[in-house]
Write a structure and sequence with these properties.
Length: 434
């Protein structure tokens, strides 16, 4: 039988990717090297950039657009030309930590408007187990008037890429796939095999595939929460967490997690999708929620420790100047959404500390719009009582005692090293890390 996979390969059928962000654009471009692809996004400004071969998320280099058979569009009618649809839109949470399915259901409505008999819809967005079948499929059926399982087919394949990571990429990470039936699973897995050199893992169901993704990030979150809590304890004891971890890490089965701020839209968000589902089923997930609580508190904790250090050096916080190096949610990326550095800043602000923030990767306009903060183009030399190394961008990797001394007032003051990367490299300056 001539399956949709074969028609895609012979370009008798077309793929669409709906939502062209960190996840959607790389996958769309990877497929566009083999298939005919329509890249759809509701954000017209982003679409215009991609038409010019620019990635608004700054992950894909201009060469990544070369040799691709892809049409970028913000016109949902264009999706009617496609038969295999991949949905990769955001799955954020509300302020109350409840899943916000707004973008996912909106994208489902858009795809439903283009659905034809025989089409396949693959969701890549991270969701709780059950979401694809309980929340998305009803929208697809209602809007299209078609029936899932007979008229169109659904699959789920979570994305595991890691922003800023050039080693673990779409090609090198095994792709988990779950589908509504065996033929769909086979078509979808063989289609991903075209671009995923590491191959696919065929899960027994859509729910298993959904659950596998959400627990990867939940496991990381809980483990980081444990070392963050240990770091609070060790701070009281007066020993350095990284030294303890180095010693414990010599045992073969000690897990090498490090303390830090857990921001971004994956690790700090996904566990809430699972705990929400769990709550609905009558089980209050204590371990996962405790981990979330600890990790969500760490930014405020770092801010408070900085103020304590200032006071210990007889510096009135009202007159103190503090430099924050880095604002994005992780190193070497441009994304400032859900950064936990903001909690460090808000805590310092609550003590009326004067703060300068620099970040070579963040856009000053976005920082202004999102947080009402002004990024400084460059730090002032000899101006600060404390420097907080909040994000380890490559621009700061080579910093040593002389660089910090140059920033500090009179060459003295405190270095707050959130990730412990400058340990042993700050000379006789006052030093604190998680
Ligand atoms: N960023 C990551 O590293 C990563 C890794 C694994 C999984 N995920 C998951 O993948 C999904 C997408 O995340 P992302 O980081 O790519 O998000 P993103 O914010 O970078 O991009 C999402 C894109 O979708 C577009 N969009 C929003 N609503 C839309 C709609 N209704 N129709 C069409 N386009 C729409 C936005 O304009 C944006 O371009 C999320 O569920 C996320 O949890 C992300």
């Amino acid at each position: 039988m001539n399956t949709l996979h074969d028609q895609l390969v012979s370009k008798d059928a077309t793929m669409s990717v709906v939502g062209l962000g960190y996840v959607g654009l790389p996958i769309a471009l990877a497929f566009a090297k083999h298939l005919r692809v329509i890249g759809f996004d509701i954000h017209e400004g982003r679409v215009e950039m991609m038409k010019r071969g620019e990635d608004p998320s700054e992950e894909v280099e201009p060469e990544g657009f070369e040799g691709c058979d892809i049409t970028f569009t913000a016109n949902a009618d264009d999706l009617k030309q496609a038969n295999f649809h991949i949905v990769a839109v955001p799955t954020p949470i509300h302020a109350s930590h409840q899943p916000d399915l707004g973008p996912l259901l909106a994208a489902s409505r858009t795809v439903a408007g283009a659905l034809k008999k025989g089409d396949i819809v693959v969701y890549e967005s991270t969701v709780y187990p059950g979401c694809t079948e309980e929340d998305c499929v009803p929208v697809l059926e209602e809007v299209s008037g078609l029936k899932m399982g007979t008229d169109f087919f659904v699959a789920y394949s979570p994305e595991r890429i890691n922003p800023g990571d050039k080693v673990n990429t779409i090609e090198t990470i095994v792709k988990v796939v779950g589908a509504c039936d065996e033929p769909t699973l086979d078509t979808v897995a063989r289609t991903y095999d075209l671009v995923v050199k590491a191959g696919t893992h065929r899960a027994s169901s859509i729910r298993v595939a959904e659950a596998s993704k959400i627990i990867e990030n939940t496991q990381r979150d809980v483990n980081i929460a444990l070392v963050n809590e240990l770091s609070i304890i060790f701070n009281r004891i007066g020993i350095n967490t990284f030294e303890v971890l180095e010693a414990a890490g010599t045992k073969w089965n000690f897990l090498k997690f490090q303390p830090g701020l857990v921001g971004g839209h994956c690790i700090g968000i996904d566990p809430y999708y699972l705990t929400w589902k769990s709550n609905k089923l009558g089980y209050h997930a204590r371990v996962i929620n405790s981990g979330r609580y600890v990790n969500d508190s760490m930014g405020f904790y770092v801010g408070k420790q900085t103020v304590k250090r200032l006071l210990a050096h007889d510096i009135n916080p009202l007159e103190a100047r503090v430099l924050v190096l880095g604002l994005t949610f992780k190193e070497n990326v441009a994304d400032i959404r859900n950064t936990k550095v903001i909690d460090v800043i808000r805590e310092l602000e609550s003590f009326n500390v004067n703060i300068d923030i620099v970040d070579p990767h963040a856009s000053p306009e976005e920082v202004k719009a999102e947080y009402d903060l002004d990024l400084k183009a460059a730090p002032e030399q000899g101006a600060y009582h404390a420097v907080i190394a909040a994000v380890n961008h490559e621009e700061y990797a080579g910093y040593d005692a002389e660089d910090f001394r140059g920033l500090l007032k009179g060459g003295h003051g405190t270095v707050v090293d959130v990730k412990g990367v400058f340990r042993g490299r700050t000379g006789d300056l006052d030093y604190w890390s998680l």
